[in-house]
Inverse folding.
């Protein structure tokens, strides 16, 4: 049996087990996918998990700290080294490798949406591991400009109070913050008085039973939640672990319907 799992905190609402149980069926493989809620990482616990599982997903809040913890003892993909965050651990014959399938998930979702980012201005809300992965993905899509907004801006990042300076330029917003997802359903990462007049598309990488307040505000643009990116990055991880060749575009609709049943149940 192929033993897989997901590390994160909290994991009460994760859809990854449902997703990967279905992928096992599609690939005609026997396996399990466990939820492993871990609030604080430590090297001893990680060693135990790496001994027990052949593959692990890593989610909030550990994507950057897992790389820092394992970089010296693992093989890191080029994307992981550039991004500084990993969401997938592969264990093979005693060797551990770190991968980032988040950026590939974002690329696959943008392709599915057929949204052309060339010469567009993109604003990413949040500066964590997912934000870094999406910024890395965007380097392959030739946007005109990419801005990152953070509560604690560093370097070229913008504070949220600075967003009025670019509000006329932004064509795409990607929300990577947890605001809008449980338990922060009533929160909004943007101040109410900011209006992006040239906004064309909003991608909120979260998913819940309801539209987030952010999504409700921009009803006149294309609005997309995070299910597509979740499915795409999950398939990428599954293929790494099992050497399968499952294709996102072929599986998207059936998995989307399956996960929506879980969300709205």
């Amino acid at each position: 049996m192929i033993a897989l799992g997901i590390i994160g905190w909290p994991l009460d609402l994760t859809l990854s087990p449902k997703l990967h149980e279905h992928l096992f069926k599609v690939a005609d493989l026997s396996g399990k996918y466990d939820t492993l809620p871990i609030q604080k990482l430590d090297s001893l616990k990680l060693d135990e998990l790496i001994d027990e599982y052949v593959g692990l997903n890593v989610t909030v809040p550990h994507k950057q700290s897992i790389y820092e913890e394992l970089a010296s003892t693992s093989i890191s993909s080029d994307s992981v080294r550039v991004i500084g965050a990993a969401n997938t651990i592969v264990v093979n014959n005693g060797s551990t490798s770190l991968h980032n399938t988040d950026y590939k998930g974002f690329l696959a979702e943008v392709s599915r949406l057929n949204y052309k980012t060339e010469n567009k201005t993109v604003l990413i809300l949040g500066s964590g591991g997912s934000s870094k992965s999406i910024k890395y993905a965007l380097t392959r899509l030739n946007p005109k400009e990419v801005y990152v907004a953070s509560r604690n801006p560093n370097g070229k990042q913008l504070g949220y109070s600075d967003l009025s300076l670019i509000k006329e330029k932004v064509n795409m917003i990607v929300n990577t913050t947890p605001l809008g997802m449980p338990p922060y359903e009533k929160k909004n990462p943007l101040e109410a008085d900011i209006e992006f007049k040239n906004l064309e598309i909003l991608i909120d990488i979260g998913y819940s039973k309801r539209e987030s307040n952010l999504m409700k505000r921009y009803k006149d643009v294309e609005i997309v939640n995070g299910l597509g990116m979740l499915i795409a990055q999950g398939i990428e991880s599954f293929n790494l672990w099992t050497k399968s060749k499952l294709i996102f575009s072929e599986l998207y609709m059936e998995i989307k319907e399956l996960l929506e049943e879980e969300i709205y149940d």
